[in-house]
Write a structure and sequence with these properties.
The chain is an all-alpha fold and 397 residues long. Among the domains are: 125 residues, no CATH class; 83 residues, Alpha Horseshoe (Leucine-rich Repeat Variant). 65% of the residues lie in helices and 0% in strands. Helix 5 packs across helix 7, helix 14 runs antiparallel to helix 15 and helix 20 packs antiparallel against helix 21. It is rod-shaped, with a radius of gyration of 33 Å. The N terminus is likely disordered.
Length: 397
């Protein structure tokens, strides 16, 4: 174990240079100086035999020995306390009960040393910490248990996720907040928590995933993979959260899942897919253009809405679609540009007054009315309007 360098290092140097016979057990309580001396011996990597003997001396003292080490923390600084914590942790699970009892200790130095020892113990303390988290009536102790479970990182995630899913409702927010602090290893558990019927927990999970997803590309990808299937959830709040997360972090890799949701029979799922597509933007455009020609008009309309919401990044592809050989594709492209109120599209829409398909001609009239705010009935009128207003400043949104 790595040891800090501090004022007692001179003592350690002296210990390292002497012979190390096994010491007889002292029946008297350890003084603070004795406790620190014993901790130094236990953590001395240069004299493994004496370290083993010292550990056995501490083990022989049982709970009293653990308490005496903790009590010594009152007399020494943080660096010495670090030695004490590491030495106690060397006892393994035998030290856990006494350390757990000390979590409610009023003295900050004693309590801090106990918490550091529990942190050193890691998974050896997991079951006890979960039990404390669930059962203690002391809110401060519960919070300390949560912090320690968070320090276990991925090892603590299953226990915390279990509390979120099956634990008492009043404990779920703290467990979720701890999962958020853990970060990346908690992504899957937080994604599952979006499905909870606890509104507070769902929002905590949602905001936690936004926070974690923004930390790195890898985290963003993990958040996307964990939440993209929730776009098809039957619960609108879950879909909305998933749409925001996938839209924010998904990129091009998320396009197939968004299109899959867009093609759903469920209107709510389609609406969520439209919102997600709008957030994803340009990567969605080619697939959405293809969907404009879908046999299912509900899907085609949803794609039109998504392209309108994407706005300018979709304009070039929509303009090209105005010249497509399929009337439905032309008509939906007209509608999307009209809904965008894109004034620069007026010259491209004007020729569609002469389109062979009546519905496309009607769509062009409606689109130009949306864009210009005027009733325009012919190609010539549309071009005349454009000539007059081409150099106008951009319209305010």
């Amino acid at each position: 174990m790595r040891k800090p360098v501090f004022v007692l290092a001179l003592t350690l140097c002296a210990l390292a240079g002497r012979a190390a016979p096994a010491r007889a057990q002292d029946p008297k309580p350890l003084t603070p100086d004795d406790a620190v001396d014993l901790a130094l011996r236990i953590t001395d990597e240069d004299d493994e035999d004496d370290a083993a003997d010292a550990l056995e001396e501490l083990r022989a003292r049982g709970d009293d020995g653990v308490w005496e080490m903790l009590d010594a923390a009152k007399e020494y600084d943080e660096e010495a306390q670090a030695y004490l914590a590491i030495a106690i942790a060397e006892l393994g699970k035998d030290a856990v009960p006494q350390l757990i009892r000390t979590m409610a200790e009023e003295d900050e130095d004693v309590r801090s040393t106990a918490l550091n020892a529990l942190t050193e113990l890691g998974t050896d303390a997991l079951d006890a910490l979960v039990k404390v988290f669930k059962e203690t009536p002391n809110e401060d102790v519960r919070l300390r248990a949560a912090v320690l479970l968070g320090k276990l990182e991925e090892d603590g995630v299953p226990a915390l996720a279990g509390i979120v899913k099956y634990g008492p409702r009043e404990l779920q927010p703290l467990a979720l907040a701890t999962l958020v602090d853990v970060g990346g290893p908690s992504i899957e558990a937080l994604a599952q928590a979006l499905n909870t019927n606890n509104t507070e927990c769902r929002e905590l999970a949602h905001q936690g995933l936004i926070k974690i997803g923004g930390t790195s590309v890898a985290a963003a990808t993990s958040v996307t993979l964990a939440t993209q299937d929730l776009l098809r959830s039957r619960t609108s709040a879950v879909r909305d959260a998933a749409a925001e997360l996938v839209g924010k972090f998904g990129g091009a890799a998320a396009v197939p899942k968004v299109i899959e949701a867009l093609c759903s029979d469920d209107e709510g799922v389609r609406r969520s897919a439209v919102a997600c597509a709008a957030d994803l933007g340009a990567p969605m455009v080619p697939d959405l253009i293809h969907c404009l020609n879908a046999e299912d008009r509900k899907v085609s309309d949803a794609a039109c809405d998504a392209l309108s919401a994407i706005g300018e990044p979709a304009a070039a592809a929509l303009t090209k679609a105005l010249r497509a050989p399929v009337p439905q594709l032309r008509g939906q492209a007209v509608c999307a540009l009209g809904n965008m109120k894109r004034r620069a599209s007026v010259p491209d829409l004007a020729p569609l007054f002469d389109d062979a398909a009546e519905n496309v001609r009607a769509d062009a009239r409606m689109a130009l009315e949306l864009i210009t705010g005027e009733k325009i009935a012919t190609r010539a009128e549309a071009l005349a309007w454009w000539e007059k207003h081409a150099n106008d400043p951009p319209a305010k949104k």
